[in-house]
Amino acid sequence: MSTNKFWTRERIVSWPLLLALGIATVAYSYHRRWLAESQVAGEALQAQDAAHHIQSEVILFTEHVIPAGAPFASIMKDLGIDSSIASRLVSSAQSVFNLRRLRAGNRVAVGRSVLGELRVIRYRIDTDRMLWISPKGSEFQAEIQTVPSVTETAGVEGQIRGSLFEGVTAAGERPELAMRLADIFGWDLDFYTDTRPGDTFRVVVEKKKFTTGGAAYGRILAAEYRNQGHVYGAVLFHDPSGNPAYYTPEGKNMKRAFLHSPLKFAAPITSHFSMARFHPILKTTRAHMGIDYAAPTGTPVQSIGEGRVTFAGPKGGAGNLIQIEHSNGFQTFYMHLSRILVHNGEHISQGQIVGLVGMTGLATGPHLDFRIERRGQFLNFEHLPLPPADPVAPRDWSEFAAVRDRSLGLMPGAHESLASTNANEPAPVSRSANSPAPPAPQTSTP
Question: What is the crossing angle of helices 414-424 and 397-408, to 10°?
Answer without folding.
Answer: 150
